[in-house]
């Protein structure tokens, strides 16, 4: 076998220019799909962390059954009571993979500074639990002023766009108003503890994050509309979702559990779009590789017709001639993938050094343009391209092997 590889390698060197162009095409194609795959991997990681940590969805969100369909019509009926929250927390805390479970209450209403009033949507949270959910992601979410603090009972975090509308800065006071669950109008004083950027223009002019106690006081209730669950690994999300659902049903609680990717529409939409673009790019690269290898092998067959006739006249079988061309195709694919890996590494180093940023559509802040190295994907692409190059040489190889010996020797 090694002898055939040496012969195929020498044949590649005999056609340096054509072989080099084919290797270059495979190399650029390999680097293109590997870099885009690395960009997708980094983007998926960022979107996943943004949804789980940044938006505070954690991994699982438990609603009372019917909340998502009828919660707006009769919120009091579809919220968790204190007793139900306790039962739910007991079930969750008995699972070793649950790091944290915390009740939350979303509210909405009108916020005013005395001169200007506008609508707001607020997430009522327990400040200490938010710190755990955000984890290391907190470094990517800088805040002007102070974060939520249990010592500052009426301190809230306000989105920058909303604060700009109300002309407010950290330390300023405001009033929020909303009807209670019983339909009575209620109002509370709040202090703007800090300003933050939600990351999207659609939410930056209306969002706030407030302590759960304020949300409950404004709605005059002790209930919660959801329970957020943080796991030790996002890969356990789907299996634990099923397990927890069964345990809650057994405990007599009618609930509905949603995973973070089901609640984050933005993640799903971006992932579907990127998967489609990647498939399109991969098909283009495969087409280029096939055409390049077939063209190189086809030209090699034409130029080496007399050589093939000589080999056949010396007793070489058709299958052996075909195998020789197939090995040449496989070697070209191998050299192309190796140089593609080198090109991929070079671009990866340059990107890491420059650290470029860009502002995606709908975002209000720039995000880094980074690329991950995904060795498993690179290995798979290399294998596919080498096999493709090898099989792409089969057709010209069959034609080469099937020529009449006399005609081949007389070919000019």
TrEMBL record:
<feature type="transmembrane region" description="Helical">
    <location>
        <begin position="374"/>
        <end position="395"/>
    </location>
</feature>
<dbReference type="Pfam" id="PF02687">
    <property type="entry name" value="FtsX"/>
</dbReference>
<dbReference type="InterPro" id="IPR051447">
    <property type="entry name" value="Lipoprotein-release_system"/>
</dbReference>
<keyword id="KW-0472">Membrane</keyword>
<feature type="transmembrane region" description="Helical">
    <location>
        <begin position="323"/>
        <end position="354"/>
    </location>
</feature>
<dbReference type="InterPro" id="IPR003838">
    <property type="entry name" value="ABC3_permease_C"/>
</dbReference>
<keyword id="KW-1003">Cell membrane</keyword>
<dbReference type="GO" id="GO:0044874">
    <property type="term" value="P:lipoprotein localization to outer membrane"/>
</dbReference>
<dbReference type="GO" id="GO:0098797">
    <property type="term" value="C:plasma membrane protein complex"/>
</dbReference>
<comment type="similarity">
    <text>Belongs to the ABC-4 integral membrane protein family. LolC/E subfamily.</text>
</comment>
<protein>
    <submittedName>
        <fullName>Putative ABC transport system permease protein</fullName>
    </submittedName>
</protein>
<feature type="transmembrane region" description="Helical">
    <location>
        <begin position="20"/>
        <end position="40"/>
    </location>
</feature>
<keyword id="KW-1133">Transmembrane helix</keyword>
<feature type="domain" description="ABC3 transporter permease C-terminal">
    <location>
        <begin position="280"/>
        <end position="404"/>
    </location>
</feature>
<feature type="transmembrane region" description="Helical">
    <location>
        <begin position="276"/>
        <end position="302"/>
    </location>
</feature>
<keyword id="KW-0812">Transmembrane</keyword>
């Amino acid at each position: 076998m090694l002898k055939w590889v040496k012969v195929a390698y020498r044949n590649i060197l005999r056609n340096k220019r054509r072989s080099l162009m084919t290797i270059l095409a495979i190399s650029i194609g390999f680097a293109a799909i590997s870099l885009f795959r690395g960009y997708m991997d980094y983007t998926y990681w960022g979107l996943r962390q943004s949804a789980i940590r940044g938006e505070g969805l954690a991994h699982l969100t438990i609603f009372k059954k019917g909340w998502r369909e009828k919660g707006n019509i009769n919120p009091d009926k579809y919220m968790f009571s204190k007793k139900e929250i306790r039962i739910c927390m007991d079930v969750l805390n008995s699972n070793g993979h649950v790091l944290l479970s915390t009740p939350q209450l979303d509210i909405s209403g009108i916020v005013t500074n005395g001169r200007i009033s506008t609508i707001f949507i607020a997430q009522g949270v327990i400040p200490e639990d938010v710190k755990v959910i955000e984890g290391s992601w907190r470094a990517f979410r800088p805040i002007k002023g102070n974060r939520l603090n249990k010592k500052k009972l009426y301190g809230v975090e306000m989105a920058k766009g909303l604060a700009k509308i109300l002309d407010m800065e950290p330390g300023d006071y405001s009033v929020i108003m909303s009807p209670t669950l019983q339909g009575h109008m209620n109002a509370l004083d709040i202090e703007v503890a800090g300003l933050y950027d939600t990351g999207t223009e659609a939410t930056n002019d209306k969002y706030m994050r407030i302590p759960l106690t304020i949300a409950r006081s404004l709605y005059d209730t002790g209930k919660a509309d959801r329970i957020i669950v943080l796991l030790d690994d996002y890969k356990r999300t789907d299996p634990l979702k099923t397990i927890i659902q069964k345990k809650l049903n057994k405990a007599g609680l009618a609930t509905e559990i949603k995973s973070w990717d089901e609640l984050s529409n933005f993640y799903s939409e971006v992932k579907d779009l990127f998967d489609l673009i990647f498939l399109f790019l991969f098909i283009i690269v495969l087409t280029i590789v096939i055409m390049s290898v077939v063209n190189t092998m086809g030209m090699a067959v034409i130029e080496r017709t007399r050589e093939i006739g000589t080999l056949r006249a010396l007793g070489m079988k058709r299958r052996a001639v075909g195998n020789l061309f197939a090995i040449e195709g496989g070697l070209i694919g191998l050299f192309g993938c190796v140089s593609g890996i080198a090109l991929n590494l070079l671009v990866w180093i340059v990107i890491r050094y420059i650290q470029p940023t860009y502002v995606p559509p709908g975002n209000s802040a720039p995000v880094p343009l980074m690329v991950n190295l995904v060795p498993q994907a690179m290995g798979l692409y290399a294998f596919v391209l080498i096999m493709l190059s090898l099989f792409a040489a089969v057709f010209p190889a069959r034609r080469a092997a099937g020529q009449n010996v006399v005609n081949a020797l007389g070919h000019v």
